[in-house]
């Protein structure tokens, strides 16, 4: 019976998949975890190797050589896990979707052992592969667009600076000249308003009505003295005196009604 082992090619694919996936933030947080770095003690699911011929997975030299026997959960998986977390990660990093992970793994499975070893050891080759991924290209395009928009806004702000300085100078002139005159006029209008309100207050109106009553009373007394002194005839006296007394009693009734209704307060 032939014993199935993990080849170095698959180990390197797994290493690179972990490294690449940990550097690509997903578009949305999902509840799915990659088998290697999803949890501290997660085990990689074991495929049913007995149902698949060994020749379809590994080359004959690997299957027939007893010196290459190893377990899938050996030091290679641990080293891949360690190398994945040795690289700097974003604090807000989230895991990619299964579709993105499958696409990255598919790109790595077609590479030879030498190519995978170069990707693991050569930083420039690794970065070239990383920036060629669609997810990275999308994020780089978004970054470039945001950078262009920011620069455009900065240029527009700088172009508006002379206009802002001009408006600021106008505000200073208005504050020192026109504003002072407007404040003085406003103070005068406020004073006139207070005087008008004081003249039209209920107590002031009652006082004016009382003074008008006294004026009519004095005119009535004067007209009466003229009659006694024969300075006016009786028909004229009756006509004028009747008008004065009617006006007096109207004002007296208004004054009494206002005081009774509490307007004097």
TrEMBL record:
Q: Which residues form the VPS37 C-terminal domain?
A: 183-265
Q: Which residues form a coiled coil?
A: 139-199
Q: Name one GO biological process term.
A: ubiquitin-dependent protein catabolic process via the multivesicular body sorting pathway
Region Disordered, annotated ranges? 61-100
GO cellular component, alphabetical, reads: ESCRT I complex
Which SUPFAM superfamilies does this chain map to?
Answer: Endosomal sorting complex assembly domain
Q: Where is the signal peptide?
A: none
Q: Which Gene3D superfamilies match?
A: Helix hairpin bin
Biased region (Low complexity) positions are 88-98
InterPro entries from the UniProt entry: ESCRT_assembly_dom, Helix_hairpin_bin_sf, Mod_r
Q: Which UniProt keywords apply?
A: Coiled coil, Endosome, Protein transport, Transport
Spell out the Polar residues composition-biased ranges.
68-79
- Localization per record: Endosome
> What family is it from?
Belongs to the VPS37 family.
Which named protein is this? Modifier of rudimentary protein
Q: What is the lineage of its organism?
A: Eukaryota, Viridiplantae, Streptophyta, Embryophyta, Tracheophyta
